[in-house]
Amino acid sequence: MTEPVTLKTVAKHAGVSYQTVSKVVHNQGQISPALRQRIQKSIDELGYRPNAAAQALRTHASHLIGYSWSLERKDHSSFILDQFQHDIVEDAEDAGYHILLVPRRTEHDVDSHFRELVKARRVDGFILSSIEYNDPRIESVARLKVPFVSFGRSHTSDATACVDVDGRAGIAKAVHHLIDSGHRRIAIIAWPDSSRVGNDRLAGYLDVMSDAGLPVEPAWIVRGTGETEYGYSAAQQLLAIPEPSRPSAIVTVLDSIAMGAMQAVETCGLIVGRDIAVTGFDDMPTTRHLKPGLTTIRQPIREVARAVLSLLLAQVNGEQSVVQPLMLSPELVIRESSQGYGHVDHEKGALSTVTA
Amino acid sequence: MTEPVTLKTVAKHAGVSYQTVSKVVHNQGQISPALRQRIQKSIDELGYRPNAAAQALRTHASHLIGYSWSLERKDHSSFILDQFQHDIVEDAEDAGYHILLVPRRTEHDVDSHFRELVKARRVDGFILSSIEYNDPRIESVARLKVPFVSFGRSHTSDATACVDVDGRAGIAKAVHHLIDSGHRRIAIIAWPDSSRVGNDRLAGYLDVMSDAGLPVEPAWIVRGTGETEYGYSAAQQLLAIPEPSRPSAIVTVLDSIAMGAMQAVETCGLIVGRDIAVTGFDDMPTTRHLKPGLTTIRQPIREVARAVLSLLLAQVNGEQSVVQPLMLSPELVIRESSQGYGHVDHEKGALSTVTA
DNA sequence: TTGTATGCGTTATCAT
DNA sequence: ATGATAACGCATACAA
């Protein structure tokens, strides 16, 4: 709104040519400390900031990163996605970049939408989250030959840069913990097999049960969609299994599902953490205020964001980059909800955090 | 990555000068339909898109809007904020704009941060959400004399453009509904008085109780922070009030608080919607899957986003704009949780939506 | 050590 | 109806 301050303005103020000012801004060339200081002072006084558009035009770099996410996909809780967004924005800024929101439109538009952004040179690269099986965005962006990294992986996209949390290993830790605590009949409340994230987590359960030589009754695996209400009904279903094979522990793929399950257990007159163990996934803030506290799996979102950004910037800077999924391990957070079996594991101490 | 397509590329392809191509792009000047068509064909074939940086440099408009939000502030549930973000991105795109994420840094940085964005002409304006009392961002941005609109209002900012949902009217609708249903002893689970949103909603409760000539016992007003777990403990507190003045209805300022309250009621062996009425705020998706369904207040986020964006673009386009808060009314969604008093209000039909 | 010239891709004003 | 010229603000190779 006010008179714009450009290199020339500063140059006039400092009594030099504007190119010299540019050099000071970029710490280039050989300039006498005295002059440099004088010019810097002018810059500060006038509050000069390089014009982003001019810089982008000249350097062919917008320093903008497109972030494509989805409001609907619920494989990750919004808590995780909010956190991820927050973190990439912060990391991007530290690197001199900004995040541009790219809405997810209809299937049909996906292609043209990314193309426009690239053709107009609006962004230097993309970050994609909420990846599904055969996610059309992966192919669209890959075809544009533009830098991109995804948080999460699609099945078909083995040759693209991505970072993901090893949900399989995460659930495995939880199941191991339950087995160590004495549980043998362990059930899982999972997602439909159209969910890549869900299948991954379920695999972690199957891995450990099989390794431990524990039989898995078909009825112990519930698959469905939803949050608390789904956890509630799924747990009811599990608790209705007749005694010999009724599970003593319930693993879930999401904290809010676990919360519903806990409710169902209590409604049955049973005590979570004594009669039945329950575990969650994500370590939502509310999770620790539950009574009993929920044993859950914490995703290293901070690290995911950091990795995503550094992989992306490597590509942007033309460095040869890895096209193999980078897997980060989540950690098991043990609280009271996973006790049971006469507190077999009590000496390990509740509320402690185990990083395996 | 590939050879950039510029006006000149297209011009060469079509056999004209590049200025003529520019005119076709902008539907300007007098150009014979035939030529126009031929040029348009070249544009399509080559996939030409105007370079955003060059355009911004030339027109002094980045067509970028900075969006400042906060991960921590929980006056609005993240559900509302996610929705709002989604909606402004979509509306912005329809208007040819994009949303740039502006992280909220430390108190100290607030000022310089916005200033940099403006001085560098990165953005054309700002949208602010999660507004608090005396929000430092309001003053920072206002001082820069740059277009901005906030979702929510600070107390001190009466003279800035903002859009907000009338939470006071929303809670008032809920309380009216409860009174109509026969309730007289109505309690509220609210937020600390440091919360502007919370105070606003509480005022709606006090308004109606007072208008209806109903006395309000101090113990009926609980204030605190948190979500489900807070709702649980607050409701426990209310249910512990000895009989003559124990509330028969509990109004809350957030769906997740209401969910906790419902749990507490059930734990007491009482039935929500029969013995005790409970209402929420926000109409989260899960809310309708609860049993009983939660009566709640739906915020017109779609409309808020639309209004915020049009107010902002008006400022950006130099139109004289309103500097008065624009208040939008939420609607009451009646489900089963607000019944009670022997289903006094049953004939009105559950699961119906009332827009008062 | 400092200053000059050129072009990035676009829009807009002016001749033709 | 169409084309030449200038300017937006910056970075950089090159000359002084």
Outline the structure in words:
Two copies of one chain form a homodimer. The first copy, chain A, is an alpha/beta fold. Chain A has three domains: 7-50, lambda repressor-like DNA-binding domains (434 Repressor (Amino-terminal Domain), Orthogonal Bundle), CATH 1.10.260.40; 64-160 and 301-328, Response regulator (Rossmann fold), CATH 3.40.50; 167-295 and 334-351, Rossmann fold (3-Layer(aba) Sandwich). The first copy, chain A, is built from twelve helices and 13 strands. Chain A has helices at 7-14, 18-25, 33-46, 52-59, 78-94, 110-119, 136-143, 167-180, 196-211, 228-239, 255-267, 301-316, and strands spanning 64-68, 98-102, 125-128, 148-151, 162-165, 186-190, 221-223, 249-252, 277-279, 296-298, 326-328, 331-333, 353-354. In chain A, the strands form three sheets. Chain A has a six-stranded parallel β-sheet with strand order 2-1-3-4-5-11, sandwiched between helices. In chain A, α7 links the parallel β3 (125-128) and β4. The N and C termini of chain A lie far apart (56 Å). The model of chain A is unreliable at 343-356 (pLDDT under 50). At the A-B interface, α4, α5, β2, α6 and α11 of A face α4, α5, β2, α6 and α11 of B. Chain A binds a DNA duplex (16 and 16 nucleotides) through α2 and α4.
Any key phrases for this structure?
homodimer; 356 residues; alpha/beta; 434 Repressor (Amino-terminal Domain); Rossmann fold; six-stranded parallel beta sheet; 12 helices; 13 strands; DNA-binding
